[in-house]
């Protein structure tokens, strides 16, 4: 029996956790797959569901630094049949049958045109815990990717989906974590690039400075965690936010797997103009790559206006690390980008906040935190 989207208990009394590492626009999470456990480093992505890694044999794989996962070396690896509940539950992930009808296959494309396809399997996934004892999760449904390409870094070997759909790690952990997880993302340039992702009771965000806003689900898009962003203030100028017209009352998704914050073109123009008008000192420059529209040479005279994201019930004060991204040693650029499809609150805006998801209570909490200490 496959435990897709089911409640199950974890035998270890400690709640699981995982190391999170900043890596040039993304955050990599450490897990293990198989028996014996084989270490995997993959993108932590709240904007997708399926857990997948590149697998031997590769039809077409991108270059990765670490060895490929070999299912033949794991005694617990099992492919999933086309008639299984797991295969049926992965229809949103493009599940289909192999040519001989024996194995369930998946195919996923991402917003940046990256893709993965391969076999659906049941495998033991292992996480760490604060006691040092590993937490093994048998029969976790994963994707064993044989054809993978796109913008993937060689430091990672796949994606750990943390979205709201049935195939995600969060959903497969089920009631054992009480629908709670949290993370704290260090700035990309931090001297200590690692922090911890917590699941269960250790993921509760509490204490002074905590701000909470409703988590809004859209049944037609169960993967995404929608928030309601009402406005963004730049200094004394408050700019109303409309955002995406999908997601019910939610108008922006929070996504650990997207670097920049994506907003509609009209809003971006107002935001960019407000920031440019209120910045003092520094020298305005152009992006060497021609991608960003508002960039500066970050000398000591550069002073940025205060910027606040006004979510429903939570006024989140952003720092310079959340507003600007360093594109090279001499240039920083506004970490927002115009996009009229789906509005996304990206990971630059989330840096140095402890961010907690409480799915039963349907709340998301922000707590300003030095993430290098977590």
TrEMBL record:
Its main location: secreted. Keywords: Aspartyl protease, Glycoprotein, Hydrolase, Protease, Secreted, Signal. The active site is at residues 45, 255. GO terms for biological process: proteolysis. GO terms for molecular function: aspartic-type endopeptidase activity. GO terms for cellular component: extracellular region. It is found in: Secreted. PANTHER family: ASPARTIC PROTEINASE CDR1-RELATED (PTHR47967:SF66), OS07G0603500 PROTEIN-RELATED (PTHR47967). Residues 27-367 form the Peptidase A1 domain. This is Peptidase A1 domain-containing protein. Gene3D superfamilies: Acid Proteases (2.40.70.10). It comes from the Eukaryota. Belongs to the peptidase A1 family. It comes from Linum tenue.
